[in-house]
Design brief:
This protein is 21% helix and 11% strand. It is α/β, with parallel strands linked by helices. The termini are far apart.
Length: 161
């Protein structure tokens, strides 16, 4: 077998039907669209239309809303930070910030800040400068000999808790 003998299997590639090319083609005149009516015309998009009946998406109740002011945080676990320190990507002696985490490849991009979660185990005494940290994460870092500096201002919701 040579390279010039390579072919597709018979029937693997099917040619597109050219519509509207005369009665003899079998797809002439109306080109498979039937006769008249809205869907025989061009530019038709009848997605949710139910023949004048109230469409399902308008019959069902709506709930909630999308808060355009909500901040989008990166979430990082203590275990992930410890893995990066063990691999030599993060320096435990320097404060760990968003930019340090992005440079180390722990985060893909800096969003509105970092939220540290308490899952995993941290052995190094590190200084974390983050927007938020869970109570378990703060306790684990302080137990390991480090400290957590929360840069985000406390909101009314966190004050009440």
């Amino acid at each position: 077998m040579n390279l010039d003998e390579i072919r597709d299997n018979p029937g693997a590639r099917k040619k597109r039907m050219r519509v509207g090319r005369g009665i003899g083609s079998g797809k002439g005149k109306t080109a498979g669209r039937g006769v008249k009516g809205q869907k025989a015309r061009t530019g038709v998009a009848v997605k949710g239309f139910e023949g004048g009946q109230m469409p399902l998406h308008r019959r069902l109740p709506k709930r909630g809303f999308n808060n355009i002011f909500a901040l989008d945080f990166n979430e990082v676990s203590l275990g992930r930070i410890q893995t990066a320190i063990d691999a030599g990507k993060l320096d435990a002696g320097q404060p760990i910030t968003v930019t340090a985490l992005v440079a180390a490849g722990v985060l893909r991009r800096a969003k509105d800040g970092v939220r540290v979660l308490g899952t995993g185990e941290i052995k190094a005494g590190v200084t974390l400068e983050v927007a938020y940290a869970t109570a378990s994460a703060t306790a684990a870092v302080e137990q390991a000999g480090g400290k957590v500096i929360v840069t985000a201002p406390p909101t009314a919701a966190t004050d009440a808790v």
